[in-house]
Amino acid sequence: MRLAAIALLAILLAPVAAAYVPGVAAASEPYVVLPSYLLPALARPGDSISVMVRGEVSVREALLVSTRSSHSLSLEGSGRAELPIDPTYTLRGQQLRFRVPQDAQDGVYTLIIRHERGVMWMPNAVIVDRTGGPRESIRVVHVTDTHFGAEQGGLPNNFKHTRYVALLNTLVEKHGVRLVVYTGDLIDVGSDVLAYRDFFSAVSQVFAPQLALTGNHDWSQVPDTRALVEMYYGRYVVPLLVWNFSYGDFMFVAIDTKLEGYPEMWQLDWLERTVAGSPHRAVVILMHHPYFSQAGTYKGKPDEIRGSVYSSWRTAWEQGRRFIEIVEKHKNIVAVLAGHVHRDADAIYERADGSRVYFITTVTSNHGYPAGYYWGVKLLEIKKSGEVRVIIPGGRSYSPTAGSINTESFLVFEVKDSRSTAVSWFWNVTGFTDMSVEEVVLPFYLNKSLPMDAYRLFGSAGAVRRIERYDLGLYYLFKVYADLRSPGKLTVASYEDRQPPIVRVPSVPSVAINRPLVLTLEVLDEGWGVERVAAEVKINGKAVAVLNALRTVEPQQFRLVYVPKSYGSYEIVIRAVDLAGNSREATISFIIEDPERAAQPTPSPAPSPTGTAPAEPVPEPKPTEAPVRPRESPLVNVLLVLLVVLVAAGIVAFLLRR
């Protein structure tokens, strides 16, 4: 009955569901601030949880929904909430307290709150765990520098990152991963709202608790803390600059190194109090800028190791010294995870007593990197005893500068139609060896405006090992376990796609030899979505090149880049193929003339051998004259202006009398 009510609401909201994102509601709509899909609440059955809402609502029903079960939450109270962000700013809202039922099963749950104006929801927001979390050891995936909103390597990072949904879900189910952490630069430009929405769409599909913190790019073009929290990062990800998350025998603590590359002193004061308050837990510190510049083993007093410290920390040495003093003093700190430099650079700090702290710096997931590196994520096993081990599931040897899973060849991508009534995955993982791909987990989150049996599977059916189907209240989840060893594609859709894409080509700009010709194509598909766009280049009728068009941050735009090398008559035949195999072509034609040949004078016509008089020249056409408009009288214009003024004055007088 509980899910039925939410299901009815889901059907009513179906036309707008694709546009609604938790934490990204319109300014007038309330939304859940905490817990977040990137900072969840942890509870045992029977515990109460606190939910902060921006705005004010009257709760009619609250649910926890997962693939295992759904449970109704009882409202215990409501009041005002204050969330201190930094010493100068506090976020205010409404606090709701709910009781988790005693029969709740362990799992990661979506929080759904129905109120008088609609529904709020937040995926992966609540962890129910009877034991309180992992004991003795935990497996964590470290992701950093995702840079949504930018393009790199011929693909927009927003699109490229969908492969990590498949990779992370496989690591969760096949390799015992309990937590995923993101250490900043989630967005390339911190004020890019559309990039945040794409980030939510991808990251919220991971089947595990997740944590995130800010990087310098998340602060870029953001004027102050209030804007960061209320308009950008804090509204879409996590509203806090510093936070701690206790999970079993472990505590994860985040600090914000901001644009400058180091934290403010108040953060370090908070860090020390927080670490000292949980001496029985192994502490993992998360931050964006690394402390050490290079891989290696470091020991000694702060001033003795200063030359090996990353430049931003070295510049603000008061903070740099204080940070390493905290690490030296508190023996329960076992690891520090960072990103920023877009390369692997794992280091070890040896305390005076011989104990070790592992400083893990991981490659970028999606964006530029120094020569010799690659895109990837890092799988860690962290033990309460203080040992940290880097795992590469495919068996490749680990080194401090090459410990991440190399995802360069893990080409697994997701495409959805505009209403999530068709979701597709397509792949080609030739050359990927850092993990088995015989049973990769592909999630299909589908619109619930239709019955579940309206959805069918299309594509490479032979790749499917098994399918699990779930009703998650506001949407369906089809979890497909697929063998990706051969290239293929799978679509779950409520309809067949028989319509080819529409290709709109621009006018050709000025073209010259050895200068890049850049064409932005608009490719529209009303069905399952576009799989690829390619072009064949012909010169004087002869095929000379085949090009793949590049995806852009705008889903309907593709970019074609070609450098002409010779003169002649060109045809570029563009072919767009959708995920159902339908295709359509469009052609662009132009001529690049040889300037030397064009400069040669045209020979005069030879005299007529018959002596016929030359034809009379055709007279040039006379320019068409525009019709003469009668001139308007200045007196007429003045009278019209006076009339308008009198009418406006009458309206104002009428409104004042009311």
Structure description:
- The protein has 658 residues and is α+β, with helices and mostly antiparallel strands.
- It has four domains: 1-132, Immunoglobulin-like; 135-408, 4-Layer Sandwich (Purple Acid Phosphatase, chain A, domain 2); 426-493; 502-598, Immunoglobulin-like (Sandwich).
- 18% of the residues lie in helices and 37% in strands.
- The chain is built from 14 helices and 39 strands.
- The strands form nine sheets. It has a seven-stranded mixed β-sheet, covered by helices on one side. Strands 10, 13, 14, 22, 23 and 24 form a six-stranded mixed β-sheet that branches. A five-stranded mixed β-sheet has the order 2-9-8-4-5, covered by helices on one side.
- The chain is globular, with a radius of gyration of 31 Å.
- It starts with a helix and ends with a helix.
- Residues 11-23, 606-649 and 651-658 have low confidence and may be disordered.
CATH homologous superfamily classification of the largest domain: Metallo-dependent phosphatases
Please identify, by name, the CATH architecture of the largest domain. Answer: 4-Layer Sandwich
Shape: globular
Binned, the helix content reads: 10-25%
Number of helices: 14
Distance between the amino and carboxyl termini = 51 Å
% residues in beta strands: 35-45%
CATH topology of the largest domain: Purple Acid Phosphatase, chain A, domain 2
Count of the separate structural domains: 4
Quickly give the structural class.
alpha+beta
- Look at the structure and give the CATH class of the largest domain: Alpha Beta
Mean pLDDT: 89
Find the count of extended strands (DSSP E, 2+ residues).
39
The strands making up the biggest β-sheet line up spatially as 15-16-17-19-21-20-18
How many whole angstroms does the radius of gyration measure?
Answer: 31 Å
Q: Could you name the ranges where pLDDT drops below 50 across 5 or more consecutive residues?
A: 11-23, 606-649, 651-658
Major beta-sheet overview: 7 strands, mixed
